[in-house]
Amino acid sequence: MIRYGYADSPFGPFIVACTEEGICDLQFLGNNKRQVIHELGTRWGVYTPTEADNEMAAQIARQIFQERKTDLPLSLSDTDFRMRVWQELRSIPKGCTVSYASLAARMGMPTATRAVASAVAANPVAVLVPCHRVIHSDGSIGEYHWGADIKKALIEWEQSEV
DNA sequence: GAGTGCGTATAAG
DNA sequence: CTTATACGCACTC
C-alpha cells in the first residue's frame, strides 16, 4: 500500500508518496505535473494499491520546509549503483555543495563522473536526498530534474539562516 | 551491441 | 562565451 498526497512548499507544489517503511517519492510538480504522475505510474505499476492522503503530505511539508528536518525515513529501491550514489548524497552536509566529479571520486570511481550524474538524476526523492547540492566542477549550477531555478533556490535556502 | 546522459577537460572558433 | 572532440560508465532498448 502506497499513500500519496499533494502539498505546497516554498518552491512550489509537490507530490509525496510513502510505504510503511518511509518516503519512496517526493517530486516537485512544476510545469509537468502530468509527466511526474506518469512516472509514478510506470515505476509502481497501476496495480499497486494506493490511498490519497493530503494530510500526511502536509505534515511532511511542515517537517521538511518549516522544521527543516532531513532525517525522515526513506524507502528507496533501485540499482545497487544508484542506491550507493543516493546514500553518498545524504552524507553531504546541509548547505554544502560538491561537484559530480568529486562525488564520483569520493566513491572511489573517479572516472565514472557521467554515470554518477545519471544516478543523481534518477533520484526520486527531492530535498531529502540532496541531489541539488551537486553542481558543476566550475561552480555553475548545472541541470536539475525539476528546474535549475529550484535547484539554485534550494541551495540558497539551505545556506540561509538556521 | 548501440545510443544516451543533471559531466569535465581541453582545443578551437 | 559557444561548438567540437574525447573520455568515461551505468542504464535502456
In short:
The protein has 162 residues and is an alpha/beta fold.
Describe this entry's structure for a reader.
The model has no long low-confidence stretch (mean pLDDT 94). The protein contains 6 helices and 6 strands. The strands form 2 sheets. Strands 3-2-1-4 form a 4-stranded mixed beta sheet. A two-stranded parallel ribbon has the order 5-6. The protein is α/β, with parallel strands linked by helices and 162 residues long. The longest helix has 12 residues, at 33-44. Helices cover 38% and strands 15% of the residues. The chain starts with a strand and ends with a helix. It binds a DNA duplex (13 and 13 nucleotides) through α4, α5 and β6.
